[in-house]
Amino acid sequence: MTIINLDGLLKPKSIALIGPNYLGEDELSSLLERMADSGYLSPTTLVGFHDTHGAFSEADSLDDMDQMPDLAVLACGPDHAVETIARLGAGGTRAAVMIASGFEVWPPETLKGMLEAARPYNLRLIGPGSLGISSPSRRIQVHLSVETVPGGDLAMVCRSGIIMNATLSWAAAHGVGFSHVVSLGDRVDVDIADLLDWFTSDVETRAIMVQLETVTNARKFLSAARAASRAKPVVLIRTGVSTDPSPSSLTAAGRLATMDAVYDAALMRAGVLRVTGLDDMFDAAETVTRVHPNLGRRLAIIANSRSLATLAADRVAALGGEIAQISAVTEEAVQPMLRSFVAPENPLIIPSNAPPESYQELIRLLLADRNVDGIVVVSAPTAFAQPMGTAAAIVAAAGRQAGQPRAKKAVIAALATAEQAPQRMLEAAGIPCYRTSAEAVRAFMYVARYSEGKKLLMANPPSLPGDFTPQMEVARAIVTNALAEPRDWLDHSECRDVLAAYGLNYGPAPSIPRKAGSKVPGELFAGLADNPTFGPVIVFGQGGSAVDYAGDYGLDLAPLDLNLAEALIARTRISRLFHDADENELSRHIRHAIAMVLVKLAQLAVDIPEIREIDLNPFYVDEDGVVTITDMRIAIAPPNIVPGRMATSRLAIRPYPKEWERTLQIKDGRRFFVRPVRPDDEDSFKAFFEAVSAEDLRLRFFAPVRDFSHAFLARLTQLDYSRAMAFAAFDVSTGVMVGAVRLHADPDHKTGEYAIMVQSDLKGKGLGWMLMNLIIEYAEGDGIETITGEVLKENSTMLDMCRSLGFKIRPSSDDESISVVTLSVAEVRSDAKDPGEKA
Which stretch, 54-58, 171-175, 733-737, has highest mean pLDDT? Predict the structure, then answer.
């Protein structure tokens, strides 16, 4: 279950607090006082308690209640929990919170009994050991926190009650409010992934903040996190890092892939912005929702003090940013506004008493410079340069004016003043303002990292070159024979042959030029590690004997494509050798060759789950992009069965489902290759839409469509196969895309919404019918019970096909021009006939 009945938790129509009291008298008194003062307008009942506030109804037991509550708050402890939940579920209660003033561990048999009692009724459970929940806009304050939760638009979910208390105290001191707050406790049922799904569609929530310790179902968590991150910022703090087990692997890849480093990689892959402190969490959430995402990490600094400029530049380097190299045109334009005898280079040092006009013009010039991704303005007040004038100039150059979009690059201010008015002016214009340059640079890096995460979600990578076809069965046979002996390691010749089957060649070290300025790297390292939570992890960095102590490596989860592989490479220091502003053809050859190594390692992990760990140390890439591996190790083990993952897959991110590729033939003999949609199909979709008639586009999208932007096409081609499936049909004779069908499951994975379109001249030929049957077949195999869709009533061809397929059709309650079609997958007749002239 995911979002089923979570409305009963955060939007309940009635609440009951149920005894007997297990909390303690002080805790019960505090809870009742908070609930009484909340102003909740719907019915609230005390079961087994006396109302001393005159704010509640009373009942001696559940038997005395005319109707069970939507939300039950259990103060009864473990002894009565199972029986109480069974009674509540049978009576229609949708959610229950096992509340406590601190974290609790209940007996395993009690937890199992609670789940079994709740499951038949889809009653959702929070806790045990939950501090409670709050939805301020609905006046719900059912918690034992030290602070009343103020209203706002940030959602927060945390496991620890202490973290919840600390966060709410910090928020109260800084005037921050919340849409919803949930303390999970022991997560017997509802977990972070469930709440991420619910918050994603919640219109009251602008950003989501998460406190996380561990993940139990990696595929579920990453799927929910990726969906949430596409819709709104997700900012996360991970606690308990010091208790992570130390790696015990015999491979370098296994030693480098520490648990926390893998969490870092997984969160980045999901588009989640990770921070390290509570103040960071709020700052990050506020900044990334105000500032336009950066194109990169290149920061320009304007400062009216050399010392302040130096502090800012030092912070940029410490946080992994880059000091932007401004263009020659910009250098010439800014020179008159800088201090005397100061070179026109970044950071830009202006006189301490520079007029507001200088700030405004410098910002304007830097915003127009393509070498600049963002600007930090650092200013200390003087007797002749007041903060209000500086703030007004920044707003004039980069502020969000009424009816105008925000600046296309991040502009952040650091004003060293105690005055509140300048900060209020800047923040009203959508420009974050801080007291110190360190805070401003940190905010810029939040935006840069957030933007990088969004790019990983919305990337458009090229597919693996068509001339690469791994000899999977050759490699699998070698591994199978070694396991049968049994052995944990492949010998040298077996390693060589397995790698050769995937186009990775062993040989002597090539001659690498050591002349100054050479972009050819020396010893490199690539490896595969096995993480118990997230599965196969790809590692890349500096190789040779330095691999364990140089600290120059990056990680990512399998599967990989070339785009993700290049992003992984760019996270290492050694990549600067062949990835800089002077990049040439040689640099691109080298980077592409390394990326292919990483993609092939990831494919090995996908194809042969028995391969657990690999070290390629070192390997080399020469000037022609030829890769040579001079030493390698491969560890093997029987595959594990991982809950929530298909067959023996260890992957936390569901890979491309090749098993759903088909070749279909319609009645006139034409053949079509149909396969799941991939990210590199963006150009095919664009050409397809351009070839479809304007009328057919209107019938598909319910409105005229003229702009096939990258963002629009990326939403159609960037799929999380755990939640959505789309098939594209290509004419076998031409390779041209001629149709597509998609199914997007709801978070509970019970209902999916379909959409379909075929090339205009293929309507009525049978291709649409075949694509619909394929998506129905997929839904049945994926456990989706109901397929729904919306069809314009004037689209008679589509409605006729839906009737033929067994869909039920009814008018939409929201729009009289639309019909809602619904198909029960289990009731589909296996002998459905092609009506011939449909779709």
Answer: 733-737
Model confidence pLDDT, tens digit, residues 329-342? 999 999 999 998 88
Where does 458-491 have alpha helices with state H? 472-484
**pLDDT tops 80 at residue 515:** no
Q: Of 44-48, 111-115, 508-512, where does mean pLDDT reach its minimum?
A: 508-512
How remote is the C-alpha of 241 from its chain's centroid? 21
Q: What is the C-alpha to C-alpha distance for residues 182 and 158, in angstroms, rounded to an integer? A: 6
Helix 387-398 / helix 421-428 crossing angle, nearest 10 deg: 0
Q: Checking phi first, is residue 579 left (phi over 0); if not, alpha (psi -120 to 50) or beta?
A: beta
State the virtual CA torsion across 235, 322, 624, 681 in degrees, nearest 10. Answer: 40
Distance CA 31, CA 811 (A): 47
Pull the structure tokens for residue 256: 């480098």
* Cβ pair 433, 427 in contact under 8 A: yes
Please give the pLDDT value at position 201.
87
Strands (DSSP E) contained in 306-435 are: 322-323, 348-349, 374-379, 410-415, 433-434
Report angle CA 653, 657, 662 to the nearest 5 degrees: 170
218-271 pLDDT, tens digit per residue, is 988 998 998 899 889 999 999 989 899 888 888 999 999 999 999 999 999 999
pLDDT at 639: 82
Mean pLDDT to the nearest integer, 548-574:
91
Asked if 231 and 179 touch (Cβ cutoff 8 Å), the reply is no
d(CA 703, CA 766): 25
Cα pseudo-dihedral 502, 506, 510, 512, rounded to 10: 60
Asked if pLDDT for residue 512 goes beyond 60, the answer is yes
Distance CA 457, CA 558 (A): 15
Whole-angstrom distance, CA of residue 478 vs CA of residue 483: 9
3-state secondary structure of 437: helix
467 has a pLDDT exceeding 90: no
Instruction: Identify the CA nearest to 210 among candidates 748, 201, 219, 197.
Output: 197
Q: Quick check: helix, strand or coil at residue 477?
A: helix
- pTM to 2 decimal places: 0.86
Question: Are the beta carbons of 398 and 324 closer than 8 angstroms?
Answer: no
Q: What is the mean pLDDT of residues 513-522?
A: 73
Alpha-carbon distance of 567 to 43, in angstroms, equals 54
Are 767 and 666 within 8 A, CB to CB?
yes
- Residue 457 sits at φ, ψ, to 5 deg, of -75, -35
Helix, strand, coil fractions of the chain, as percent rounded to 5 = 40, 20, 40
Nearest 10 degrees: CA dihedral of 384, 385, 389, 394?
160
pLDDT, one tens digit per residue, over 366-401 is 999 999 999 999 999 887 778 899 999 999 998 765
- Model confidence pLDDT, tens digit, residues 270-284: 999 999 888 888 888
Q: What is the distance between the alpha carbons of residues 611 and 636, in angstroms, rounded to a whole number?
A: 5
Q: Which two tokens stand for residue 485?
A: 């002996």
3-state secondary structure of 487: coil
Alpha helices in 305-386 (DSSP H): 306-318, 328-334, 356-367
Alpha-carbon distance values, 79 to 49, 75, 76, 83, 730 (Å): 17, 11, 7, 9, 62
Tokens encoding 17: 């607090």
Average pLDDT of span 578-601 = 83
Take residue 226 and report the two structure tokens written for it: 């990726």
What is the crossing angle of helices 710-717 and 682-691, to 10°? 110
Tally of CA atoms within 13 A in the half-sphere of 133 that contains its CB: 29
Alpha carbon distance 299, 312 (integer Å): 10
Name the pLDDT band for 833 (thresholds 50, 70, 90).
Answer: very low
* pLDDT of amino acid 514: 65
- Residue 803 burial (10 A CB sphere; 0-12, 13-18, 19+): middle
- Residue 261 contacts by C-beta under 8 Å, 6 or more apart in sequence? 555
Once rounded to an integer, what is the mean pLDDT over residues 275-304?
Answer: 85
